[in-house]
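Standup notes
- DV: blocked on the single-chain target, sequence here:
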Amino acid sequence: ATTLAAQRGVMQSIIALLADPSAEVATACSVVLPRLLGSASFVRVVGLNEAPCEEAEAEAAVVDGQLLHDTVIAPMVSMLLEPASASDAADRPPHFRLALMAALGAIGRESLYAHACCRGAVVLALSAHLGRDELSQEYGCAMRELRSLAAQCGREGYIAEGTTEALCRALSPQLAAEWAWWLVERPELLEPTAHKLLDTSVNEMLELALPHALPSITLLGGLAQRGVHRRGERGRQAGEALRQLAQRLDHSEAWLLIQHMHLILAELFVQQASDDTGDLNDAIPGGLDFMVSRGVDSSQSLSDMIGMCAEQLLQEMVLRLGRASGERERGVLLLALNLLIPVGLQAGTLEDGPVSCSALGVGSALNSAGLVGTNAQLQAYIDANFHMIVQFLRDRLTSPTRSLADKREALHGLAQVLYIMRGGELSHSWWGETVATLKVVLQQRRLQSQALGVLDQFVRLLDPELLARGLTPLFLMALPCLSEHAAQVVPILEALVVEPHEAGNVSEALARALSELVFVPDHPALRRVKATLSSSYSSTSGLRPRLSGCLRGLQHESGDVRLMALGQLLDELRGAARAEAGALVASSDPSDCQLVSDLLDALLACLRHSAANGGASASSDPSAGALQPARDARLSRAADLASQC
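- DV (later): unblocked, structure below
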């Protein structure tokens, strides 16, 4: 692909063949083109103008989704949807549009274009043909490609079911605003889109569109009122779009705006914070003017509006951080947060009364480097609201109705919140809330790798006191993922055990916690961890503390950790002096008696678990069949070790 891509005329030639007079040639081209554009190495040379490089290296590198949209998807969509000139139309055969639709649908199914902005644009482009007669070739081609794309997303696990309804709901941030604009631009598309793709009514589809459409309508309408026109005529049509939405849904315009105030304000602040050219200097004041012109109470100050939805607004900003894909986007969102906090997010604490938009000083604030990143003000606000933030994210992460994309977004939001706290001091509440959240997420296999990245980030933020307090639970959280994610788990374990030693930052409490961490699996990558722990064991420490450490492993919910603990316990018992082991068993000390009793209970529990689950059928979990042999071997090994102990 790289060699082919180096001939830059190839791309133009292949696209030109979509308009070949022969339908067979055009169809063949619609098959070849997606395969080429699905190759990262080809796209990097042809689309992104990068120099050719080794194919394996180019394929492994991640290509930015927005860049793919702008350089590959958008030009093809434009070619499909924009009216052709008279000369072009005369030269294009009837099958040209069908071939282009098929190629676009196939490109959307390529994994390289899995980013929501790419697939959202493909769905919208194909949906634009649903206004055709249902017996027409264009209608049939559009539905066929949309169903194929939905099926592919289902196979990838992006959506729970491979249906167009599930696909459209998952892509609603990219699609829904356009549905609302169709009220004034393409009303003929509303019914077929609602009925054929979403299996719902037009009104229900518009209800789904409101959270995404109202911020866009308010922004563009406000800018137009101040003489700034973006996205063509949409600014002038914003008022009419809002009027028709309210009429269709039987609500007042002001009611719709107030109910979605947190989303609207988030959009206005983010857009103004993202302004590099001065075109959006009027985003916030223009948006406020637009809302007042549509019936929102003019006596409400900006701080009043923010205060009425402060919790929802902060949650929306955290979700937007979760969707951020780069440093610049994160910087824009942090700037927007830093502007929001003194204006109204701390509603009820402002000493100087309501803050008007004119008092924002946005122009000077945008030039302040201190507001584009984390700072003490932002850290203090996040810390004060962390319980609310993490509970909101945990609800999304554990909800059975949320898509995988929603959960990834929430988990990335947690990572961004931790990023904000870099250099700050984490309170004890952060420990419990974060560990509880990550513990649940690590049990979801598709989120494990991402969750381990967040855990690594969290571990490195802990001060010695919190690290000592949580050493064993954190160690045991990461350990079950060692076999599948060793490259991520090992740095976490080394950050817990090795790095404090190397930095000379081992407090008395941490030294005590390290001495109690007595079992580590025999894994070649854990050599440094085992060596550090060996040096941490006190020469006077006896059998009892080492067995106590094994007991904690035996009581862990992870079968992998229990199996490791069984092996360590057997080694400890075999290596212990007979007199020392006998003294512990014969001891009348209540704590010794309790330890022996707990060890026996744990060993019996391991035997019962192995016996009860050894013959369990994998039929209840379709994905478990391939894992059953390894699972049975682990259970058999656990039973054998427990018997020997």
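- Follow-up: Confidence is low (pLDDT under 50) at residues 1-7, 55-61, 347-370, 615-630.
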